[in-house]
């Protein structure tokens, strides 16, 4: 795997990463994802993920007498 990295401040480019070959990246999200509604698009070398949040169950209060 070949990796190029470019970080500049004065010129303009702050970060540019290029990977060649097989690559894998993982990350942790703050909330659960609705897997049934999740989508992924790959176009011109850009992977776009749409990961909608899972609906939060509303809590019910029961009056006990």
Write the layout of secondary structure elements.
Elements: E1 2-6, E2 16-20, E3 39-43, E4 46-50
Antiparallel strand pairs: 1-2, 3-4
At a glance:
The protein is an all-beta fold. The protein has no helices and four strands. It has strands at 2-6, 16-20, 39-43, 46-50.
H/E series, N to C? EEEE
Q: What is the share of helical residues?
A: under 10%
Overall mean pLDDT stands at 79
Instruction: Tell me the radius of gyration.
Output: 20 Å
Distance between the termini: 67 Å
Description of the molecule:
The model has no long low-confidence stretch (mean pLDDT 79). The chain is elongated. The chain has a two-stranded antiparallel sheet. It has a two-stranded antiparallel sheet with strand order 3-4. By secondary structure, it is an all-beta fold. It contains no helices and four strands. The chain has a domain of 26 residues. Strand 3 and strand 4 form a beta hairpin.
Task: Give me some keywords for this one.
65 residues; two-stranded antiparallel sheet; 0% helix; elongated
């Amino acid at each position: 795997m070949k990796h190029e990295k470019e970080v500049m401040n004065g010129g303009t480019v702050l970060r540019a990463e290029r990977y060649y070959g097989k690559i894998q990246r993982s990350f942790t999200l703050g909330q659960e994802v609705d897997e049934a509604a999740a989508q992924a698009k790959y176009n011109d070398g850009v992977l776009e993920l749409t990961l909608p949040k899972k609906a939060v169950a509303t809590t019910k209060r029961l009056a006990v007498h």
